[in-house]
Structure formats: C-alpha cells, structure tokens
Amino acid sequence: MTKTCSASPRRKTDAKSYKIHPAWFVAVIAFVALVGAAGFRATPSVMLRPLHEEFGWSLGTISAAVSVNLLLYGLTAPFAAALMERFGIRRVVVGALLLVAAGSGLTVFMQSSWQLILCWGVLVGLGTGSMALAFVATIANRWFVTHRGLVIGVLTAGGAAGNLVFLPVLATLTESQGWRTAALTVAAVALLVVPLVWWRLRDHPADLGIGALGGEYEEPRPIAPAGAARTALRALGQAARTRPFWLLAGGFAICGATTNGLVGTHFIPAAHDHGMAETTAASLLALVGLFDIAGTIISGWLTDRVDSRILLGVYYFGRGLSLLVLPSLLAATAHPSMLVFILFYGLDWVATVPPTVTLCREYFGAAGPIVFGWVFASHQFGAAAAAIAAGLVRDQLGNYTWAWYGAGALAILASLLSLMLFAGKRLRPVAPGIGLAVPVKA
C-alpha cells in the first residue's frame, strides 16, 4: 500500500478460510529479513583488526565509523516505523536491503577512513536501521493480538540467529579470503533477500481482508498529510513529556552500551589481546547469539505473563554482574568459566526487548511502535558512545578492563531505572490520532 487513507473499503475475508493464519507467514519473512540485518551488523566486529593492519587506522578511528553506524541504526528506526505506516512495510524493507547491499559492496573500493564512515556508517546504518526493532514492534502490533509477546521474542531472536549464522562465516572468510570477500558476501545476501520480501511480506491484515491473529478486522488508521517525518517527531515531542519515556529510554541506552556498543564491537579484539584466536572469539560471540535465541523467546513468553518492569529489573541486574566478572575470565583459551559467562550473558543479551516493546504499547497505545523507535534510538546512542569510548580506553590504557567495569555499573543503574517505572504516574490518552498518553494530574 502507498497510503493507508484510501477511501475504498477492502473486501473482508473469513480468516478461518486459511489453514494457517497469514500473520505467521509475515512473521517468517520478517524473521528472515532480521536474520540478514543482524549478519550485516556483524561485519564490523570481524573487520576491526584487518582494517587496522591494512590501512594503519587506529581502533578509535575505525570505532568512529561503527559509532556512526550505530547512531543511524537507532535514529532511522522511528522514521522507518512512520514510513511503514505511510508507504507500507514491504517497500521500506526492500529499500533498506538495497542500501545495505550498496554500503557493504562499496567498501571494497575504499582508500580513506571517510569512505569507511560513508559506507559502514551512513549507508549500512540507514539500511539496517530501517530493519531495526521498531520493525519488530510494527509487525507484532499490526499482525498479532494473541501471542504478541512471544512473537516479539521470536523476531528479536532473529538478530541473535543472524549473529550465529554470519559471525563464524564472516570470520572464516576474512581470515582465509580477506575482508573484501566477506564484505561482498554480505552485499550478495542482502540482494538475495529482496525478492523474498517483495513476494511474501504483506503490509497489513486488511490487505487480505482479515484481522490480526486473535483480533477483529480493522481498516488501517489514516496517516495525516503532514507526512511520516512529522508524525515521528510529533510522537517524540509528546512522549518526551512523560516520565516513563525517559526511564525506558535511559535504561535502553544502557542496554545498547552494554551489548552492541561494547561486547558486540569489542569482544573479539579484547579476547585477541589475551592471546585468543579471532576465529575462536568470533565463535564465542556466535554462541552468545545461540543462547540469545532461547533467552529472547523465553523472555517473550514471560512478557505475556509477568510484569515487564520486574523482568527488566532482573535482566539488567544480571547483565551488570556478568560484565563485572568478565575481565577475570578473558584468557588465551575458552575455559569453562568463560563458557558459563557466554551462556548467562547470551540468555540476557536482548531479552530486554519484549518487555520494553510491551511497555511502550502500554504507555503510548497505538503509537507504541513509533515511540519504541525513539526508545531504540536511545539504545543506539548508548551503543555508539560505548563503541567509541571502549576504543579510546583501549588506545590509551592498552586494555579494556575499565570499559568492562564501567559497563557493569551502568547495567545495575538500568535495573534501578526499570524498577522506578512502578512509581510512575497513571497515564491518560491524548492526541487520539497518534495514541500517546500523558500523566494524569492529581
């Protein structure tokens, strides 16, 4: 669909005429796209050292390109969610995949660090940002009423599955064939996913004349002529008036700092500093993705049953403890204590997503996916800050020890912020066209 404000009603169809509700097919295609997006984001972590060795760029310089990627990955999300409302999910995702293919493929021609920032930072950042977790929220909220928390968990696990599939492959390709072969592989995979998305991804249940799984048929709500960008900015302006938004955004910023920004970007070079082979470190990071699949699905199941504020408090506190002990576990080999860390940390990696998406919908109603896009932007601000800060710590001190300790302390702070949501004021709806809420005055 190009706009959801069409005056002609769609033909209604009994969902029972389908042996399997189409929502499940949409979820499968979204999962495939998310697996690919995670693989595209995995590229920098296996190329830091090869680029450093070939071009002589400092880790701080290369980390700056990663930071730009992470920032745009987050900042694009709310606008992409609004664009999906206006122009349809399928068109936005196809455009995102083409951007990723261009950004990854063009890196093989770069000679200067600014070209790395343009390709990795800008093009790949915009592309993967359009397939970020706001995409997950849009799919889950639009296509599912029942099993929504579980679906959020499964789709979020697509990111972990992408790491699991791509990290060892990219690390092996980089070591045996060079980083250019790995970059071209990422570009090729992005292009291969495009036809699948165009063929099967549907924008809205009403396009098929049915309701969401477990819900009634609904015509898509109209999008104001002002456009997607203004809708996204208006949502931010109204959400920012509320205390829950800042608590969620603050906690999720720390989530990004302690996952993508630090561990996702710097675990491999940090392990290499202790004598561990890069392929071994990449395999350990892939194991994080394996356990994360289980952890995120379990988290989605729990989100349908347990208060999301409690879940976030527990998740962040456990992550903080694990990061505080990590410096004592790094060694030349993957000994049992490190494997225990990988198991525990993997289960917790993005388990925070299902309860955060659920709380955004609880506090901000129909605008939940767009508001979550802004909360996710804060996640990427935190990730970008941690990526460059950890690179600078390594350049200045010669090791990552204080980066791990700082991240552990921040994660415990995020646990406190999450529990502070219990003290938030009760909300009432405002701006029905957007679906936001503000605190009720006593």
UniProtKB/TrEMBL annotation:
Protein name per Swiss-Prot or TrEMBL: MFS transporter
Molecular function per GO: transmembrane transporter activity
Gene Ontology CC annotation, any one: plasma membrane
Classification via Gene3D superfamilies: MFS general substrate transporter like domains
Superkingdom field: Bacteria
Presence of keyword Aminoacyl-tRNA synthetase: no
Pfam families referenced in this protein's UniProt entry, alphabetically: MFS_1
TM region positions: 21-43, 55-80, 92-109, 115-137, 149-173, 179-199, 245-268, 280-302, 314-332, 338-359, 371-390, 402-423
Family matches, as InterPro entries: MFS (IPR011701), MFS_dom (IPR020846), MFS_trans_sf (IPR036259), Proton-linked_MCT (IPR050327)
Keywords: Membrane, Transmembrane, Transmembrane helix
Intracellular or extracellular location(s): Cell membrane
PANTHER family: EG:103B4.3 PROTEIN-RELATED, MONOCARBOXYLATE TRANSPORTER
Domain Major facilitator superfamily (MFS) profile: 25-426
Membrane topology, from the record: Multi-pass membrane protein
